[in-house]
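lol ok so funny story. i was supposed to be doing the assay writeup but got distracted and ended up predicting the structure for this chain instead. priorities right. anyway since i did it might as well share w the group, maybe its usefull for someone
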Amino acid sequence: MALAGSAINLLIPKIIAHAIDGLTNNSFRAGKVISEFLIAAAGIFVFTFVQGVVQTLTSERVARDLRNKVAEKLSHQTFTYIIGANPSKLLTNMTSDMDSVKMFVAQAFVTIISSLFVISGASVLLIMINWRLAVAVLMIVPILAVSFFIVFRKVGAIFRKSREVIDALNRIINESILGAAIIRVLNSQQPENQKFLEKNIVSRDLGLSIVRLFSVLIPIVMFISNMAVVLILALGGHYVVAGSLTLGSFAAFNSYLIMLIFPVMMIGFMSNIIASATASYGRIRQVLDEPPPAETGSLNSVIRGDISLKNVFLSYGKKPVLKNVTFSVRAGSKTAIIGPTAAGKSQLLYLLTNIISPDSGSLEFDGISIEKYTKEIFHSQIGFVFQDSVIFNMTLRENIAFSGKVTEESLRKAIITAELNDFIDTLPEKLETIVAERGTSLSGGQKQRIMLARALAVDPKILLLDDFTSRVDRQTENKILCNIENNYPGLTLLSVT
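and the output, tada:
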């Protein structure tokens, strides 16, 4: 559509040239000229309208498909990758970076294609009118191309830095929102605000650097373009006087020169969007090009619950977390692991869920290496209550039956076991009650019991509790442990505190 509209635009100077030459030769036909203009105008209107609709739809679909690809990729990546990739960066990938790519598709892509088409077409038509004058004028194109290349390369580097600053801003904002209570209790609003201001100043300075580069580029383009106009007036006027160029052809030449310069300027204006989209798409490709985790296991058997660790070592970076850990747990037993803060207890449970892998050593379930089980089947038999409450902004039913494979019977049993039935009965909408974001409408104990119910709802063979008792009173804790014993006989329970 854009090329069709541009092609019609290239015909208009020809119509003007024929009209002017017709006037000078006394062969002017007003009806023909007017009809040609009306047909051209109608064609441009139709093609431009359709182009706008297609551009908008295409940009939205590209952004949607790209978001889906990134979301799909992240859903299959390991927990270690998600943490290592920086959640704030991933958030920027899904928001600001996607918007930059969408803007490129909606505005810059078609503009560049149509501009290159017009530049090529106008150049050919200029040569056809008067090749000597055309060669003199077209010498400006490589000068402009070099200017664009230099600026574009510098701007691209700045945009990549600016995206990293946006990552940092997202992280600071996220921490400030999640830690709003403690920030106010400790009167730390000013230091937190200062952290944001410092990064915001860096973002502003990078933006100003981009503006400065483009503020130099645009005047260069305008100056060179004006010099080309002066050249045409001088040489073109000479050719008209000499009789080697008609007045109509001279007018057409001027029109084609303007048509040549305008798309060059448009590409200059779009360079900002191009540089931003290039940097953003590069960051998105980093996520999409990350190889998926290898599925090492093929075993789909049901586990009994025997656990064995032998000489397990684990470290984060250069910091050792677990050193030569060896122990075993019998199926159906109840085991507690007690240790000081930062002793690696939570990381031990992460190992047992196969969320992370050890540096060395072996983990076996029922005498079989954990790596031989398929992850989907293995995870469906493990219940894990994290130390930090993970509550979603959805109904209580959806929060508890989160796996999607929970039956109504197992849901009810999990609710009763977690001592949630009395609390749910007090709610007007019962299980259909919408929980506020991050569970802010719930107490710490309620959130912890919802997470326990979620873990039990899948009827696990092994239940892992990470400091579960920290937010539950002793009486409720005893009731819950008794309920687990009665309702889930044979369950292997491993609790750290």
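DSSP finds 17 helices and eight strands in the chain. The radius of gyration is 34 Å.
back to the writeup now i swear
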